[in-house]
Amino acid sequence: MLSQEQGKKLLRLAKDSISSYFSKRLEVDEAIKKQFSEKQGVFVTLYKKDELRGCIGYSEPVMPLWQAVVEAAQAAAFSDPRFTPIQKHELKDIRIEISILTKPVELKYTTKDDIIKQIKIGRDGLIIQNGLLLPQVAVEWGWDADHFLNHTCIKAGLPENEWAKLKLKIYKFQTQIFKQ
Q: Is 3.40.605.10 the CATH classification of the domain at 105-174?
């Protein structure tokens, strides 16, 4: 678990990485690199007036956390295919949320009920194939585990009830969230 102070540093890093896109210069302090050198999965979510404006990240710990935050923040701001790239004048209205992920764990199951019992809404995020939904999504939409699984399938480009056929690998993970 990271401290609130560490979370503030990561939020500042994300904001600086987005701002630096326009100046083409980002210098990451060596102390930040050292403090956040452990590889961790992370998602950076951007909001403009409480509306989603971008969300991209890494479900697996593939790079040091500081680097993952920089790359995910820039990708959420400028490369999320669902949105137009953020413009410089929008920066003052952008709110950043960082979700630090635990390593995903594959669910073991033989029935639909086995799957449902292993998911705690508000605590667990889900991954099915290339579809990932953060834990807060189910809470924001008021979904139960069934709906959460259906929407994770949709995010993966699958029919919504595909998980119920008991043929997919389903993973869960938890997050620690820092918000501006």
A: no
